[in-house]
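Journal club side-thread
Mid-discussion, someone asked how the predicted structure for our own chain would compare to the paper's figures. Pasting it here so we can look after the session.
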Amino acid sequence: MEYQDTRQAPRHTLEVDVVATDMKSGIQIRERTKDLNCYGCSVSTARPFPTGSMVMLKLAYGQGEVTTHGKVIYARPDIGMGIVFSTIEAKDQKLLETWMAELASPQ
């Protein structure tokens, strides 16, 4: 069986600081993203929240910070967790798009 990537947009290798808070328990994880796009991210952690957990994320890069809500779509101690964004304010979406544009432009 051949793997098919079903992401809405390519993820960029961008390590940003992230604070992920489980909305049910209030437990926080402070880590770094492995990759990121405008629709979600993966987080490097040996203690991921369970699949299906609703989370609030604070992503920090450079001088900016994005706050979004999401849902854990996979969780494995060996690779971390994948989170799809569910709610994001317009100003945060714009900042996230700015980060992606910076990555796409030649250095």
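Post-session note: Confidence is low (pLDDT under 50) at residues 1-8.
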